[in-house]
Design goal:
It is built from two helices and eleven strands. It has 184 residues and is α+β, with helices and mostly antiparallel strands.
């Protein structure tokens, strides 16, 4: 391998052999190759460290749910995402996955008063992949799920046992949804 080949492979400008050796082109190409090797190693480290992660919490918009109805959590029930790195799109309560792999999906909901049944779900392309049922005020479901690039995730909630008014608390921690890439 000639001096300058590694740097050229990265698309960096190197010096041609038509230039005079007395100008030091070969030495410059050697130095460029060492820098390119460092850049290649850094690309590997950044790929390992900068993995997709997403988290969103509750907004202050009132969410009054009818008893026994499953609701898809719409965009205005959420505040702006606090973390959104490495995902294709977040729109109207739906998250689109950019990178395939195993993800830790977590959904949480907390109602104002105790209920007979509270359920929280995460849907992957319309199919349930996370479900947690609880008696009381809230439920938190967490699951490791294999996702493909382009999969769309959404959160759903259900409340039974209070009659007509089932209000979700409006603190940021009273409803949340997160997705964290774990491994390929």
């Amino acid at each position: 391998m000639a001096n300058g080949d590694i740097a050229s492979a990265r698309g960096w400008t190197t010096y041609a052999s038509t230039q005079q050796r007395s100008q030091g082109w070969d030495n410059d190409n050697y130095v460029l190759d060492r820098a390119a090797e460092q850049a290649n190693r850094l690309d590997v480290v950044e790929a390992a460290v900068n993995q997709p992660i997403f988290k969103v919490g509750r907004s202050t918009v009132t969410a009054d749910l009818d008893d026994g109805q499953i609701y898809t959590v719409v965009g205005n029930w959420f505040a702006a995402p606090t973390i959104n790195t490495g995902f294709t799109r977040w729109n109207a309560g739906q998250l689109t996955v950019a990178k395939a792999g195993i993800y830790r999906l977590t959904a949480h909901v907390n109602f104002i008063n105790d209920r007979d049944t509270v359920e929280v779900y995460v849907m992957q392309n319309g199919n349930y992949v996370v479900k947690q049922t609880n008696a009381g005020r809230g439920a938190t479901g967490t699951e490791l799920v294999r996702l493909a690039a382009g999969d769309v995730l959404a959160m759903r909630v259900l409340c039974i046992g209070a009659g007509f008014h089932n209000l979700i608390n409006t603190n940021p921690y009273d409803m949340s949804f997160s997705a964290e890439w774990v491994r390929a």
